[in-house]
Amino acid sequence: MLFTEPTTRARVRGTLERQGYRIAQPDRLLEWVTGRRPHVLVVTGDDPPAQRARAAVMRAAPEAACVVLATDPTPGRYRELMETCTAVLPESAPQEDVAVAVAGAWRELSCLPRSAARALSGDGSTAPSPAVTVAPREAGWLRALADGATVAGLARTAGYSPREMYRLLSALYAQLGAAGRTEALLRADRLGLLSVTAPGPDASVPRPHPASSSRSVTS
Amino acid sequence: MTADVVRSLVSTAWLAEHAADPGVRVLEVDGEAARYYDGHVPGALPVDWLDDLHAPVRRGFADAPALAALLGRLGVTPTTHVVLLGDAHNTYAASAFWLLRYYGHGPLSLVDGGRRAWEVEGRPLSTEVPEPAPADYPEPSPVSSVRASRDDILQRFVPGLPGTALLDCRTQIEYEGHGARGVDLPVERHRVPGHMPGARNLDSIDVLDEATHRFRPLPELRAMFADRGVEPDTEVALYCRLAERSSLLWFALHEVVGHGRARNYDGGWAEYGSLVDVPVER
Q1: Domain ranges within chain B, ordered by starting residue
Q2: Which of A195, A203, B20, B97 qualifies as a FRET site for B215, CA 20 to 30 Å off?
Q3: Which residues does chain A have within 8 Å of residue B177's beta carbon, measured at their own beta carbons?
Q4: Where are chain A's structural domains?
Q5: CATH class of the structural domain B3-142
Q6: What angle do CA B273, B276, B281 make, to 5 degrees?
Q7: Which of B169, B152, B153, B183 is nearest to B239 (CA)?
Q8: Are A61 and A38 a contacting pair, CB within 8 Å?
Q9: Do B105 and B78 touch, CB atoms closer than 8 A?
Q10: Contact residues on chain B for A55, CB-CB shorter than 8 A
Q11: Of A147, A151, A218, which to mutate for an interface test with B (greatest number of B Cβ within 10 Å)?
């Protein structure tokens, strides 16, 4: 069952029909779904209207497994979506992968791209993920930011111009799979990079107070 | 352009024509300034929403002395026409607009569509960072009519006194108390999910056209607010989580619709959701 924009809907529908699924595509989805107990919802899009539509349908059909095809989801978005959905794939995923995700959802198995699963696997762990390599100096920057340092202040301490510092941090955020500072610090915390036992900071960067190094994102 | 004819909302075409005018200072306000350094409206200066507009130690926006110092560093005087734009649906720029309005800066505009509109239209971007001559900006006095304090919220808006309305500008999922974002772990109850009793939900992004990120036509905006109980004489308090999204909705209501009785609760859900023994609905 799909509520998607037309092009993707036609493509996904064709794929699933070839797999033998019975597809429903009602005009008035919310009314249709009430009381019918659908097995799997396939949703394309993750913009606010799609989020609202998905939330409404999932409230009406709480037992259904939901497969979301999202546009360029970040690790943070994968995490948020997986709180309520069964599978999340990028919208550009091959149709074979969509079929696998739906088959898994049918059997109450979750599906994520391997890169996303690896990125999320740091949750709850204190050890850095092998997929993310952060230099000790960069870990020090992250700890300083988590402790409330400004980027301009960090630049002064580390001997960079603000432009250079922002660019270095931007690359570091991207390396962590994050779109911005807050998301990067949440991710770094989950990877154990904000821990005082993580690799030491650059000697020129003030080390945050141990008791507060992770306070801003976890406590 | 003098203060009495400054429009709160200007177009990218206006910006292209006036960015270099004497007396105009263009500020790009982003979640942080990394994108600015990759390219910006020629002549614009960077403002980092987190670092420049917030107090370094206590919780809250920059106080009057800090804001005066910042504006002085940016070469802004009380008569400078400050023109704001930014990324992320212009929310950070709208937040800066609200803050400057709160501190009584007169000539002030927000660029409709923000940085995205400028880029989509293929307008020029520069990597040159201007170095303005510092200016003297006297310590401003706050304009309390655009701000709702925690006490305002608890004493007037949450009890639902006649003639008041609350608008929650977060996503529907946040409003309903699902899908905690980032640091909110409901099980710890350090900040609970949900919304203020009586608050109506209007996702701030909904006031923008999805494709252009410009504000929707005025009749549509009026209808959105009217549908949520906002009448011409209603005192409205708006909140989100950190006060940037609510600033965008405040701008739509106060500056575009022209509803003078709109207050931004900058404590937001980050504050209210952490208070002990206050009513919360889910």
Answers
A1: 3-142, 145-272
A2: B20
A3: none
A4: 2-120, 136-218
A5: alpha beta
A6: 50
A7: B169
A8: yes
A9: yes
A10: 172-173, 176, 178
A11: A151
Tokens 């024509």 appear where?
B17
Complex prediction ipTM: 0.79
Strand order in the sheet with B108-111: B9-10, B108-111, B81-85, B24-30, B45-48
- B240 is a catalytic site residue: yes
Q: Which residue bears the tokens 């002085």?
A: B72
Is the Cβ pair A48, B182 closer than 8 Å?
no
For B51, the closest of A49, A76, A151 (CB atoms) is A151
B55 inside 8 A of chain A by CB: no
Residues in B closer than 8 angstroms to A166, CB to CB, are 32-34, 36-37
Is the pLDDT at B178 greater than 60? The verdict is: yes
Q: Which residue in the list B85, B108, B221, B240 is annotated as catalytic?
A: B240
Q: What is the pLDDT of residue B180?
A: 53
Where does residue A113 fall: left (phi above 0), alpha (psi -120 to 50 degrees), or beta otherwise?
beta
Task: Mark yes or no for CB contact A151/B179 under 8 Å.
Answer: no
Residue pLDDT, tens place only, B105-161: 999 999 999 999 999 999 999 999 999 999 999 999 999 999 999 999 999 999 999
CA distance A140 to A154: 10
B101 Cα distance to chain centroid: 10
Separation of alpha carbons B64 and B69, rounded Å: 9
Q: Are B118 and B110 spatial neighbours (Cβ–Cβ below 8 Å)? A: no
Predicted pLDDT of residue B2: 41
- Lowest mean pLDDT of A207-211, B52-56, B164-168, name the range: A207-211
Q: Which residue has the tokens 């899908």?
A: B179
Neighbours of B120 (CB within 10 A): 13
List the structure tokens of A22. Answer: 């019975």
CATH of domain A2-120: 3.40.50.2300
Minimal Cβ distance to B179: which of A83, A169, A182? A83
Q: Which CATH number does B145-272 carry?
A: 3.40.250.10
Q: Does B210 touch chain A (CB under 8 A)?
A: yes
**β-strand partners of A68:** A43, A88
